[in-house]
């Protein structure tokens, strides 16, 4: 285990084997303050807050990833390869694409399609499909059902573009059954696979892209508690 990197400086504080990773560092702070006990902050570099504590006696860390594949690509790579983390569960918001998916529903990302070139670094002789760890998918679905959450399991899109000049972009991904769009999970799944580690993305639907429905920033930061509870319950 390294003493620190340019992006993560624990200064002797422990990082758990399982890390919950929202995009927003303030969501990480919210989880630490409202769900964890015996909390210690292990990172504040670039205001990318990271905390370790216990949840029902289990040691769990939570840390922001920032926005986009380059950002989570750095943080998840370092957690897996430099800090001995075994599992990262991304908890975030996404925009829905399918008619049967509604605001506040939970999407469990079995796969993460992408328009990113992140996979090119592996120089594979074909197209690789980034997938979540199946055991985590199954546990998350069972836990979400126990909580009475409306869930959807399937393929999401990790997009490099938030504002896309191609006006047909969303409709074409909808046609291929993509449940929702976010911006990070493909890199997380690729890093996990390459490091022989585990990863999962769990999302609360914050907006419906085709209906112009949306939640507020405050709701995204503080109100997506079912998703947080699912991730905490399945943390090893």
TrEMBL record:
<dbReference type="InterPro" id="IPR000845">
    <property type="entry name" value="Nucleoside_phosphorylase_d"/>
</dbReference>
<comment type="subunit">
    <text>Homohexamer; trimer of homodimers.</text>
</comment>
<dbReference type="GO" id="GO:0042278">
    <property type="term" value="P:purine nucleoside metabolic process"/>
</dbReference>
<dbReference type="GO" id="GO:0004731">
    <property type="term" value="F:purine-nucleoside phosphorylase activity"/>
</dbReference>
<feature type="binding site" description="in other chain">
    <location>
        <begin position="182"/>
        <end position="184"/>
    </location>
    <ligand>
        <name>a purine D-ribonucleoside</name>
    </ligand>
</feature>
<feature type="binding site" description="in other chain">
    <location>
        <begin position="90"/>
        <end position="93"/>
    </location>
    <ligand>
        <name>phosphate</name>
    </ligand>
</feature>
<dbReference type="GO" id="GO:0005829">
    <property type="term" value="C:cytosol"/>
</dbReference>
<feature type="site" description="Important for catalytic activity">
    <location>
        <position position="220"/>
    </location>
</feature>
<feature type="binding site" description="in other chain">
    <location>
        <position position="27"/>
    </location>
    <ligand>
        <name>phosphate</name>
    </ligand>
</feature>
<feature type="binding site">
    <location>
        <position position="7"/>
    </location>
    <ligand>
        <name>a purine D-ribonucleoside</name>
    </ligand>
</feature>
<comment type="function">
    <text>Catalyzes the reversible phosphorolytic breakdown of the N-glycosidic bond in the beta-(deoxy)ribonucleoside molecules, with the formation of the corresponding free purine bases and pentose-1-phosphate.</text>
</comment>
<feature type="binding site">
    <location>
        <position position="46"/>
    </location>
    <ligand>
        <name>phosphate</name>
    </ligand>
</feature>
<keyword id="KW-0808">Transferase</keyword>
<feature type="domain" description="Nucleoside phosphorylase">
    <location>
        <begin position="18"/>
        <end position="234"/>
    </location>
</feature>
<feature type="active site" description="Proton donor">
    <location>
        <position position="207"/>
    </location>
</feature>
<comment type="similarity">
    <text>Belongs to the PNP/UDP phosphorylase family.</text>
</comment>
<keyword id="KW-0328">Glycosyltransferase</keyword>
<dbReference type="GO" id="GO:0004850">
    <property type="term" value="F:uridine phosphorylase activity"/>
</dbReference>
<dbReference type="InterPro" id="IPR035994">
    <property type="entry name" value="Nucleoside_phosphorylase_sf"/>
</dbReference>
<dbReference type="InterPro" id="IPR004402">
    <property type="entry name" value="DeoD-type"/>
</dbReference>
<dbReference type="Pfam" id="PF01048">
    <property type="entry name" value="PNP_UDP_1"/>
</dbReference>
<dbReference type="InterPro" id="IPR018016">
    <property type="entry name" value="Nucleoside_phosphorylase_CS"/>
</dbReference>
<dbReference type="GO" id="GO:0006218">
    <property type="term" value="P:uridine catabolic process"/>
</dbReference>
<feature type="binding site" description="in other chain">
    <location>
        <position position="23"/>
    </location>
    <ligand>
        <name>phosphate</name>
    </ligand>
</feature>
<protein>
    <recommendedName>
        <fullName>Purine nucleoside phosphorylase DeoD-type</fullName>
        <ecNumber>2.4.2.1</ecNumber>
    </recommendedName>
</protein>
<feature type="binding site" description="in other chain">
    <location>
        <begin position="206"/>
        <end position="207"/>
    </location>
    <ligand>
        <name>a purine D-ribonucleoside</name>
    </ligand>
</feature>
